[in-house]
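Risk register update: the risk of archive-format incompatibility is retired. Evidence:
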Amino acid sequence: MRGRKALVIGGGKVALRKVRGLLEAGAKVTVVSPEAEPELAQLNAIWKKRRFRSSDVRGQALVFAATDNRQVNASAARAAAGLGVWANIADAPAECGFLVPSRIQRGDLQVAVSTSGRSPKLAVSLRKQIERILESSRQE
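Archived output:
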């Protein structure tokens, strides 16, 4: 993603995680959301403090729809599909062009957990268990 444009729709905790991951990958991130977690303003992303517009998708390499509004997320999915842009729709795996695993990185070690979109909460729970195991093994 280095140097490529990515759009994150939404400003909650899920959107914030997506923004962080994209920035770590070197993406140029734009966030569209009328409100957002306070930490978002401190990140190196462009924040458009307004509602999503279908035209926001134009020119993006990836789109993440992470709002708590089904209609907004579905609109983002349709806009992305219409322009051939890959999209990840947080509340509808069937509308996703790609899925993102729950990921851990400790130095050169990377572990990814995926349920193919069927149970994101389970993937996060398993990731947290693995993190605890890795932490306890570092302390021994």
